[in-house]
Design the sequence.
């Protein structure tokens, strides 16, 4: 995923502002084409309340934590090529954060409940199942990262404590002592961790206070601190590890030299989350429903993209061949009114009397998405048409007229085919 045509951005929507397509059983996953600078479309994925997803290193899969029933949780695996769900990995609790190792063989999910010790589930990404759990890696906010060599798992801790990083040796499953990097207690946003691709450093960001440091991945000693202002909220590395992008809550975003955290440039965007790729294309979530595409080579060229719902996060992964289904065809007019017509409402097989509509002769009848048909007898009163048992009554059709109301039907005797 090195060229601009070799990836798409994927945005998972958390469903807190359901769109008209929302059915309560699926959530939205949007695809953004960085070359065309536009929204490709939005797929619906089975599940509810998705969290922040991660992509497999080869870009072929997306891992999305979500709720699958009232008290059931899973990590949903989506193939980027087709946008199909290929697996569901059952989890004991909601996953607060995910991290995948560089070779893609293992996925880690922080599953500690609120106020819990931060249990982490280690998942085999071939078998798509949990192979072990490790307690105490992080806190309930659950920020995780895996070292470039896959030997260490890091947990970020901040709730009711100093800003800390805790290492775990994966070979033994041994959790080490937490190392403080700030000296400042209280931090409700958690500590985000971002290892460099070459394994030489670990970046730690506390989005609430904007503290950003570079750590030695072995000793966790602070090797550099950022002091450039702007209150950093999120960080992303270019795929080659040469540039660290910082999106800030105040003013412009910053481009930093990863080892020294010295500023080398700026870009015109602020917000809460950012995703970046090696060609310098950035996708910044500026507000919960608007992302901005920027290119480092020409950051003044902004392309704003409106997303259908409040978005949890955006990641870069392999491009998809999926395209949304075409919109429905414009309604046809299969019939026209012969005269004015009564409006009937349908309930449990009965047609209830409604109001009279002055539909003039020859006025087209909109396409009827629903037809009520069967043997009916005219009973008069509030239920003029009553279903009959065959062979009694007349065989009737009643056509729905969506332009009149949500529940309006017209007798076939009042219309004629065109």
Sequence:
């Amino acid at each position: 995923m090195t060229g601009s045509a070799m990836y798409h951005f994927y945005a998972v929507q958390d469903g807190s502002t359901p769109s008209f397509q929302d059915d309560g059983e699926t959530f939205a996953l949007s695809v953004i084409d960085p070359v065309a600078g536009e929204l490709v479309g939005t797929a619906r994925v089975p599940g509810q309340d998705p969290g922040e997803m991660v992509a497999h290193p080869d870009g072929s899969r997306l891992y999305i934590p979500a709720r699958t029933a009232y008290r059931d949780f899973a990590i949903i695996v989506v193939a980027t090529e087709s946008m199909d769900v290929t697996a569901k990995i059952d989890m004991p609790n909601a996953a607060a954060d995910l991290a995948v190792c560089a070779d893609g063989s293992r996925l880690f999910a922080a599953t500690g409940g609120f106020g819990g010790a931060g249990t982490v589930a280690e998942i085999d990404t071939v078998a798509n199942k949990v192979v072990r759990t490790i307690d105490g890696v992080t806190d309930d906010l659950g920020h995780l990262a895996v070292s470039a060599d896959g030997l260490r798992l890091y947990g970020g801790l901040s709730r009711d404590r100093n800003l800390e990083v805790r290492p775990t040796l994966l070979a033994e499953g041994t959790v080490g002592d937490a190392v403080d990097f700030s000296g400042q207690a209280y931090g409700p946003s958690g500590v985000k961790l971002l290892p460099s691709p070459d394994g030489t450093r670990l970046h730690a960001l506390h989005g609430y206070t904007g503290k950003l440091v570079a750590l030695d991945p072995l000793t966790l000693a602070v090797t550099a601190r950022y002091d450039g202002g702007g209150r950093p909220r999120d960080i992303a590395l270019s795929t080659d590890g040469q540039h660290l992008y910082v999106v800030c809550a105040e003013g412009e975003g910053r481009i930093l030299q990863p080892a020294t955290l010295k500023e080398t440039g700026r870009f015109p965007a602020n917000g809460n989350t950012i995703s970046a790729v090696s060609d310098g294309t950035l996708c910044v979530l500026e507000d919960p429903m608007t992302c901005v595409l920027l290119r480092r080579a020409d950051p003044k060229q902004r392309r704003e993209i409106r997303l259908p719902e409040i978005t949890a996060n955006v990641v870069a992964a392999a491009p998809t061949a999926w395209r949304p289904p075409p919109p429905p065809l414009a309604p046809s007019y299969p019939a026209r009114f012969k005269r004015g017509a009564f409006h009937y409402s349908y309930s449990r097989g009965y047609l209830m009397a409604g109001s009279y509509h002055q539909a003039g002769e020859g006025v087209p009848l909109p396409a009827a998405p629903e037809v009520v048909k069967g043997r009916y007898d005219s009973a008069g009163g509030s239920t003029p048409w009553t279903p009959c048992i065959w062979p009694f009554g007349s065989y009737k059709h009643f056509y729905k007229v969506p332009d009149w109301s949500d529940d309006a039907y017209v007798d076939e005797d009042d219309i004629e085919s065109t």
